[in-house]
Design a protein that fits this description.
Radius of gyration: 65 Å
Strand order of the largest sheet: 3-2-5-8
Distance between the termini: 236 Å
Number of domains: 4
Helix content: 40-55%
CATH architecture of the largest domain: 2-Layer Sandwich
CATH class of the largest domain: Alpha Beta
CATH topology of the largest domain: Tetrahydropterin Synthase, Chain A
Largest sheet: 4 strands, mixed
Number of helices: 10
């Protein structure tokens, strides 16, 4: 009986030693390798049996990774163009056949683990480098500046197309850190400077045009104002000219003479004659005679002179003053006769 129990224990221990469960951690796939090589298909994360003589679980990183390739490409104009291609990728978990080939062909970089960088360097780096060069080398460096967006899109499309069906799954491709040759950089700076100068001159021109337009509008408005003012002056002169009649001039001149006669510094008086009517040249149309100082006015003038303390003789314009008789010259006495 004891021998039977001992045999069962030995068999159980041997079976336990020959069979075991191992965990495939998250972000990894695993494959069990026995003395006869890798068995079955790659295993997703979880606990899996791995048994047999000299059996061992191997792993590969399948999580997303960001990788960057520093590029220097000779462009169509024989100038070197430097840039970086950054790629977000992972191992294709759906392509189990390619993943199994990877387990068999790659030696783990660390103990039993194939790293993501190792997968990238082996299956993706050379493809990305080749496709990027193929796209960029078609352009001159000066063309890259103006076609940057199209070139970046073309690189991403070419890289993804080249890796379709492989163990690598491309999720995003970006191109950055563009480093143009110095001659191109200087040319770009000169062109940008010229564009700034052109825009500045264009803005200054627009400013001058606006100022000229404003001056023109102001001049036109001033011209209209002057026309209106001239019309007003002309109309005013016309009205004044029509209102100044010979009768009005005679009245005004009489008024002035009356005011002058009543002043404190009067010393004499000159009878008024129709100088205004003679100047105008329309004396025939005047309703008064050449001498328009009537008796009433003479009385008022005489009264004003009396108040001022002077009594000059006033002659009537109708009767000229009497001329004194001529006195014969005196005859000198005769000289006595000579003895």
């Amino acid at each position: 009986m004891k021998k039977v129990m001992l045999s069962v224990f030995v068999l159980s221990l041997a079976f336990g030693l020959l069979s075991c469960k191992e965990e495939v951690p998250p972000g990894h796939f695993g494959m069990c390798r026995t003395g006869d090589g890798f068995e079955d298909d790659p295993l997703p994360p979880g606990w899996h049996d791995c048994y047999g003589p000299r059996s061992q679980m191997y792993f590969v990183e399948v999580s997303d990774m960001q990788q960057t390739i520093h590029m220097q490409v000779l462009c169509k104009d024989s100038l070197n163009f430097k840039f970086d291609v950054s790629v977000l990728l992972s191992v294709n978990r759906e392509n189990l056949g390619s993943m199994k080939d990877m387990f068999e062909n790659l030696k783990p970089s660390s103990e039993f683990v194939i790293s993501a960088s190792q997968v990238f360097d082996t299956y993706a780096r050379s493809v990305i480098d080749q496709e990027s060069r193929k796209v960029v080398s078609k352009y001159a460096t000066s063309e890259i500046v103006s076609n940057r967006g199209e070139i970046i899109e073309e690189i991403g499309t070419s890289v993804k197309a080249a890796l379709v069906g492989s163990v690598i799954d491309i999720k995003r491709v970006t191109v950055n850190n563009l480093d143009f040759p110095e001659v191109v950089t200087l040319a770009q700076e000169d062109r940008a400077k010229r564009e700034v100068e052109i825009e500045t001159e264009r803005a200054e021109q627009q400013k001058r045009l606006l100022q000229a337009e404003n001056r023109l509008k102001i001049a036109e408005l001033q011209y209209k104002i002057e026309l209106v003012e001239s019309a007003m002056i002309s109309d005013s002169n016309k009205i004044i000219g029509e209102s100044i009649t010979p009768e009005y001039l005679a009245w005004w001149q009489l008024k002035v003479m009356t005011d002058a006669a009543s002043g404190p510094n009067n010393w004499g008086f000159i009878p008024y004659t129709d100088f205004a009517g003679q100047a105008i040249g329309n004396t025939k149309e005047w309703p008064v005679k050449d001498l328009v100082v009537d008796q009433e006015l003479r009385n008022r003038i005489e009264e004003a002179r009396n108040q001022a303390g002077s009594e000059p003789e006033v002659f009537s314009p109708e009767t000229p003053p009497e001329t004194p008789p001529e006195t014969p010259p005196e005859t000198p006495p005769e000289a006595p006769p000579a003895e």
